[in-house]
Amino acid sequence: MSRAGLSDTALATHIWTGSGMPLPAQNGSPVIVAIPTPQTRLRGQARELVRKALRTMLGQLLDCAPEAVPLDIEPGRAPRLRLSTAPIHLSISHEAGLSLAAIRMGGRIGIDLMAPADAALPDWEALARDYLAPPMAATLNKLPAPQRQAAFASAWTFHEACLKCLELPLQEWTPALGSRLARCRTVELALPAPYIGAAALLD
Question: 119 falls in which pLDDT band (50, 70, 90)?
């Protein structure tokens, strides 16, 4: 899953400008916005910016004021809409300097992003062995160090996106988990350098 270059099927993201974003289509095509945030791992301000973006876009979608959007926010879970109509699925992801927010109608979505520098972890081998599929862990182990960093970030964001799509917590890899994750359709995200990201979709 190395991303030396983005494929032609990479999912577009839109830089958040405060308004005027495209809205998700009924056919399940999502809208993903990239929101510049402070260069810090303290996520309080980033969370506020993401919630403001979501409320603004959802207000346009639901034809109501942003403050009237029935958005449920719980720590450790993706935001949820309290709606009895057709489901609208949301997902968010944070990294220092950038956050993502996704809206999809007609199917689930999970998104994740990472800066490759954060993939230079001293315990990457244990993380790959415990959480990623064995073939992927073996592939990463064989890569030269300069390539491994981006490849690990790519593999990890795909994995996390699938977990979020299925509303599963981070857990050690098992064949049963692999079968569940395989239900998701995954696609890379077109993000500003140096970020790497992925989306997982389930209809």
Answer: low
Q: Over the Cα atoms of the chain, what is R_g?
A: 17
DSSP secondary structure code for residue 119 in this structure = G
pTM, full prediction:
0.91
Query: Residue 21 and residue 96: Cα distance in Å, rounded?
Result: 23
- pLDDT at residue number 84: 63
Cis amide prior to 194 (ω within 30 degrees): yes
The mean predicted confidence, pLDDT, of the chain is: 89
Phi-psi region of 95 (alpha: psi -120 to 50; beta: other; left: phi over 0): beta
Comparing 149 with 188, the larger pLDDT belongs to 188
Share of the chain above pLDDT 90, in %: 67
Smallest Cα–Cα separation from 58: which of 49, 45, 72, 70?
A: 70
Report which of 112, 117, 116 is spatially closest to residue 100, judged by C-alpha positions.
112
By DSSP bridging, strand 14-15 and strand 31-36 are parallel
Integer Cα distance of 82 and 88 in angstroms: 10
Cα–Cα separations (whole angstroms), residue 35 to 20, 46, 60, 91, 172:
14, 8, 18, 13, 31
- Report which secondary-structure segment, H or E, holds 93: strand 88-95
Please report the pLDDT score of residue 7 as a whole number: 46
Q: Are 201 and 11 within 8 A, CB to CB?
A: no
